[in-house]
Amino acid sequence: MTLFLENARIIDPEGDTVTTGNVILDGGQIAAIGAASAPKGAQVIDCGGACLAPGIVDWGVKIGEPGERHKESFRSAGLAAAAGGVTTLIARPDTTPAIDTPEVLEFVTRRAAEASPVRIRHMAALTKGRDGREMTEIGFLLDAGAIAFTDATRVTTDPKVLSRALTYARSLGALVIGHPQEPGLSHGAAATSGKFASLRGIPAVHPMAERIGLDRDLGLIEMTGARYHADQITTARSLPALERAKANGLDVTAGVSIHHLTLNEFDVGDYRTFFKLTPPLRSEDDRLAMIEAVASGLIDVIGSFHTPADEESKRLPFEDAASGAVGLQTLLPAALRLIHAGQLTLPHLFRALALNPARRLGLPQGRMAEGAPADLVLFNPDTPFVLDRFTLASKSKNTPFDGTRMEGKVLATFVAGHQVYGATS
């Protein structure tokens, strides 16, 4: 069906523009932008001046299938994504078992296609079992559809194993995603070291653990010439090393979690476990430095790092509780805080949410241009609401934003020109 979206504020992250006009969707693509009238037989949708932007490409989402379907399934993650304006999920391989063979990858790819209303692409493990001892069959996994390779939050400690994997990945043009942390220093940590963590008696890690981990990875990237993406940069101490790597021509990009852009270490308060994340929340100075790095383009990607956890694993003493938070439905309204604070523009925000991750992963999504996939989100950035975690579509409800006043409501989400979500009120 041909759709005619009229009277929309069109966000173009590629052209860095916001214009008012109409958009035609046909054949799964954006057929025209700025058309004066609807084609014959088209379904007309009045956007009412709401914002129309490329659908979010959320990089680093954990889904519970296989192994932890009670925490999140492909269907529940897909429904949450659609309600949050996320049209493409880039799923992590830290499942049970890990996605480390073509057979497991083919299984999850088939299940995702059957169950999810949005697109799901999978990363595969870099080492077998994510154990850091032996690299996976990267070539076969690429053939089976792996979009990138990572051991997620489990850092490979043996630099020889990692260098071999990077060398092989480079020969195949594969993208490797690292988690910049020095594992010995960060093991068992639940907060960032400082006066606050000391007063609360929480086991903590120094911000230098991230810098040390990043320096090691960048040294190996310089040695091997591999393509590399740092999943989360969260401390100001890491930024000079990242800037040097880019200036020296290394094929390096970096991301940041929306939680590290909008929350800080004090949000932990009286041991609130929904704020326990990996890496832990940082200082306010670090948070502001991350926002500036996104604004300057030094950090390329913003993601939710959606990590579902059930009530039993969160209702524990802070240091024993599971790390992570769900974020598929809160990513956009949380990110809009940066717009309302005047720290980013809408085109720049969607460059980090959609265009940059799609480009880095070689996907055609993330663009507002004729011929691009018709994966779009229609939203009102100013609609206020108070988040009730029990209204989230995710099976797990571990959000740090429960009870928080937020702004920004998704009105409709389109995947390949089909509406997969529409707000009911």
From TrEMBL:
Pfam families: DHOase (PF12890). Keywords: Hydrolase, Pyrimidine biosynthesis. Transmembrane segments: none annotated. InterPro entries: DHOase, DHOase/Allantoinase_Hydrolase, DHOase_cat, Metal-dep_hydrolase_composite, Metal_Hydrolase. GO terms for biological process: purine nucleobase catabolic process; pyrimidine nucleotide biosynthetic process. The keyword Phosphoprotein does not apply. Its EC number is 3.5.2.3. Residues 51-235 form the Dihydroorotase catalytic domain. The keyword tRNA processing does not apply. This is Dihydroorotase. It comes from Pseudotabrizicola alkalilacus.
